[in-house]
Design goal:
Radius of gyration: 14 Å
Largest sheet: 5 strands, mixed
Number of helices: 2
Low-confidence stretches: 76-85
CATH class: Alpha Beta
Structural class: alpha+beta
Shape: flat
Number of strands: 5
CATH architecture: 3-Layer(aba) Sandwich
Mean pLDDT: 77
Oligomer: single chain
Length: about 80
């Protein structure tokens, strides 16, 4: 039971981008949108937004496809993004 199940890996370039993003100095609202590449079983960068409101971000996302968002106000946690209902 000590073995852990790895469902997906995170793209190494995305890991570095997330590290820099979390500790950025800018005060505007920004977000990184990630998705899962099913063929490679890897979490990859889909899009990056600067100076965008949460409402605008919500409108940019597809309605029925899950995405994960990282924003600097969410320290240490990546959360599923809201859908456009």
């Amino acid at each position: 039971m000590s073995d852990s199940l790895v469902v997906c890996v995170v793209d190494p370039e995305l890991k570095e981008k997330l590290r820099k993003f979390r500790f950025r100095k800018e005060k505007d609202y920004a977000a990184i949108i990630m998705t899962v590449d099913k063929d490679q079983q890897m979490v990859v960068l889909e899009n990056e937004f600067q100076n965008i409101s949460p409402e605008e971000l919500k409108m940019e996302l597809p309605e029925r496809q899950p995405r994960f968002a990282e924003d600097p106000t969410c320290r240490g946690a990546t959360k599923p993004i809201l859908h456009n209902y």
